[in-house]
Each structure stands twice: as C-alpha cells, then as structure tokens.
Type VII secretion-associated serine protease mycosin
Amino acid sequence: MRRLPAALLAAALTLGPTLPAHAATPLPPGGGCLPAPQGTAPDIPWPQRQLAPQRVWDLTKGQGITVAVVDTGVDAHTPQLAGRVLPGADVAGSGTADDDCYGHGTFVAGIIAAAPAPGTGFTGVAPEATILPIRVTSPADSTLTSTALANGIRRAVDAGARVINVSASTSVPDAGLAAAVQYAEAHDVVVVASAANGAQEGDPVTYPASYPTVLAVGAVDSTGQHADFSQTGPYLALVAPGVDVVSVGPRGAGQWQGSGTSYAAPFVAGTAALVRSYHPQLSAAQVRHRLEVTANHPAAALPDPALGWGTVNPQAAVTAVLPEEGAAGATVVAPPPARAAAAPVRDEVGPVLAILGVLALVVLIPGAVMVSRLSAAGRRRGWRPARTAERRP
C-alpha cells in the first residue's frame, strides 16, 4: 500500500479577528483537532469578486447536484453549510464523515457550497448544492493512502455524487487509483483534482490530476498570475484562485484563510455543479469541455503548462451556447429568414398634384392680396362707391 504525502493536511489554517495572511503551522500535537475559526471576513473576498458566480444565481445555484468532497470530512454544523451536508462515509475507519477534525475538508466544502450569511461577504460558488463528505484520513493519522483515496472516489460515485472534488495527490501512479477514476467516468461523474503545490520541488507529475478524464486545477493569485507553488504540466486543465482564499471552518461560525491548489480545485468543482444543475443533459465529458472552452484564456498557446485553458469562468460556463453540443446544448432560436427590401411603388399622381398646388399658390396669393387691399379701401369709405371726377369738354 503506497502512501502519498498529505501536504494539504500538514498545515493548519489560522485566522485572527482581522484575517491575517495565511500562516503554515503544524497540526496540534497528539492528533488534536483544530479550534473553530475566530475571525470573520465582512467584505467579499477577492476570488468571489473576480469570479462573480452570483451573476448566474438567477439561473442556478447548484440545486439538485451532490458534490463529493473526498477529504478529511465536512462539519455538518458549520452555519454556512448546515442542512446541506449528508452523513457521508468514512473509508479510513467506519461510520459517517459529517464532522471534521482537521478542517481541510470543511474549508474545501465552503468554497463549493457555503450559503450567504449575515455579517460576512463570503459565499460558495454553488450555494444550493449538496455536499457528500467522504473521509479518507483518520484523526489519529494525517497521512493518506492511495488505496483510501481510490476507495473514496468509488464510494462517492456509488452514493450518487455528480461531481467529485479531490484536493489531494500523489506523485506515484497507482493502478487502483486509475481504476477508480475510470469508474467515475463510466458512471458519468465529473472528477476535479488539485494539481498539487510542488512547483518548486521539481514539478513532478501528480495523480489523480494527470489522468485524462480528470480536470486538473492549478492556482493563480489576485492578479491572475500563476502562483509560484502551483505545479505545472501538459495535463493542467484550468486555474482558479488559490492564494489568500477565504472559507469556513468546523465547530463554529467565522472564516479561515489559506493558499494552495487544494483551494483552487473547489472553485472549479462548484462551477461544475452550476453547469450540471443548469444543463442536466450534458455528459461529464461535455461538462469538462464546456469549462475549458469558456475559461478566460491566457495569451498563450493552449493549453498552457502553467495556466491550462485559463481561469474558470462561472458565468460563461453556465450561459455560453456551444454549437458542438448539438441537441444536448442550449436550444438556439433561429432568426427569421432574410428578405429583400420591398421596392417602393412609383407615385404617378403625387408629383402632378404637387405642381398644381404650387401653381395655385402662385396665382391665388397675389389675388388674395389684391382683394384684401380693395376690401380695406371699401371699409374706409363705408362701402360707398368711389367718387369720380367728370371732365367736361
């Protein structure tokens, strides 16, 4: 059984009341759980401002779509997720996965589906999607095995997930993990995975991100630039915000802040939920294609090793009309056929009448003036005939 480093679990996300920058600190010793977040983000975080998923919320908020978070569990009592977290499954132990010691899975789930709440500008991409937590680690051991990850993907498929988010990776190819990804594809499930954070450690190929049917996601900062830690490669499909990202934590209200491709992937998973909700007829392959071709493309040959097809664009992903989708895509209303402009009817009478009218005015106006002058003279004489001088011989 191969073990893959769970770098995503090796650091805790901590926030003070003023939301300081992410600080990487070890997990509490002895397998202890992280405390609830103490800070709150009152304003809209930069990823939500830039991606603006609310532009399509009149059309879809992800309702009817179950998104599996294959991770550390998800706290079902976190206020912005409450009521939309299923019991899930714990493949690393037994029982459910609707609690979260480490907080990582809850943070990821919040990016996907956190609902609006008073006092904070933070919301998830698809705030009416349902979260299916699949725990692949145990509180007693923060390491993650490829076997548990593969089992988690299969369990998510069998439980009815339409989208699966995997914010974990290994640099060692594994037959069981590859088979699990193929299992998801055979059941028409979109799998989204983080590309990992090893760009400065040799940029190794990572799995499951590099499998052909997986949407591999890298990270960008608030300027849209490639994050220096985000791994690159020809398999990279998309990028999303992954630097100073805000989301929720377990065991209370408030938000944390963190950086990593782990937190870029759920922006894509949330967008996939929006698309699957609004376009239920599309296959998993068509959803992947739609996310790629509607992304904000970089000025480079596509796919770019560092940016893939570009930054995910929720509005375009939901609303774009793609001719290649044919009958499975949005219905296109054809415009009426073009017609030649009707030739104007020649007016034979109008010009004649116009000329006669002008002539009448030329004749009548002087006459009217003469009559007016005579009438005025007659009124002055009391309408008596004018006297005439008779000249005698």
About this structure: The mean pLDDT is 82. The first strand starts at residue 3 and ends at 4. The first helix runs from residue 46 to 51.
